[in-house]
Amino acid sequence: MKVCYLTWGETPRSYGVFCSQVIEQFVATQKKMSEHSFYFISAVPIIHSGFFREKIKYRGEIKKIKQKLGNIKFISIPIFASQNFVNSSKSTFNFMHYGTHIILRNIFKGLQPDIVHCRSYHAAWAALKVKEKYNFKYKIIFDPRGLWPEEISLKKGFNENSPDYRFLKSIENQLLCGCDLVISVSDTMLQYLKKMNVKNLECIYLSADTKKLRNENDNKDNEYINVGYVGVLSETTWHKPKDLLELYIKIRENVKNTRLFIVTTSSHTDIKKIFSEIPVEELVLISTKSIDELKIVLNKLDFGLMSYFKPENKKDILLAKMVLGVKIAEYLSAGLPIIVNKMCGGASNIIDYFNIGISYDPNSFKEINKENILKFVNDNKHFERNAIAEKLFDYNNNATKYKLVYDRLYKEYYKSISQ
Known about the structure:
The chain is of the alpha/beta class. The protein is built from 17 helices and 13 strands. The chain has helices spanning 16-32, 50-53, 58-69, 100-111, 121-134, 148-156, 163-178, 187-195, 241-254, 268-274, 291-298, 314-322, 326-333, 345-354, 370-374, 382-393, 395-418; strands at residues 2-8, 37-47, 73-82, 115-119, 139-143, 181-184, 201-203, 225-230, 258-263, 283-286, 303-306, 338-341, 357-360. Helix 1 links the parallel strand 1 (2-8) and strand 2. The two termini are 18 Å apart.
């Protein structure tokens, strides 16, 4: 069996979400299928965030990625566009594909893959169009991670009747119909896709290194109640600083001696301005680039936070309902109880089902009260929460699920080419 993992438009990095959700999981899956051939193909815009964030040091990121992949071959494809076109409209979508399909065809012609696992709508679109145009037989896994048309519409302000939103939904429909299997990352996303009559579905949650993030320390700092947020935080995303600020204010109104830790690569200067009403000693801003660094921060916390934003229209409510979030997997792996915006359906369903935190109404915050907060502080249940995380999110457990998916599709592929 030959398996190709395809990313399209993302900047490959040896840390952060790209590392944890893509590289680490693919490596874990390959280890369970070491008798088969695995390839990692990344189509990267010629102008991407690495030029601005790491600058000349970005070359070192590629070297680190290759080291992490081990004996999985890394192949890079240039996209002849700027990375901002990833967030596509009707007029810019094709900029992410001009000329690159020919390169991808040549790679596939040499590799002759059986399965192409596509992370994102752009990746699945490229694999599907190359398959159709050049008569390949490989099976396509569409791994969208979320509802891209709604995500882009939120960022760009497309309403439900706009030509751009309708175009993106038409792309989605072609992928759901044309790909051989679709992966959802939450139960709510699975139910949504079932209602759209998608036939071949699997639900595989997000991934985390539950063993490395496990908190082995029973002794918490009793002087403060430390709450923390991990991830992107910007007014141009759906994780907005002002919503996190509003949540933290409600927490500190109900319990004394609180501190807020924010772990992010977003602009610390911008965040400090927005949080200026919070005493300096209460706000800790930090960036981490390894799981060991993240573990140190998480082990100081009493709660992990996921504030998200307040969806107000039908389209944004639908988007929120699907959301689980990598940070949920990381918080739970560290044994933390979680405070989550209940509009994030994928996350709040898990929190409520396992009783591992507080899901709150972002309009009333009535659930954010002293009693609810204190019952989770120093409850000595972090090992139980880590066990739940291992069951739901662990790399090795997810690798077993992916192996079953690959094996099933390979049998279908072999049957199709034998006929």
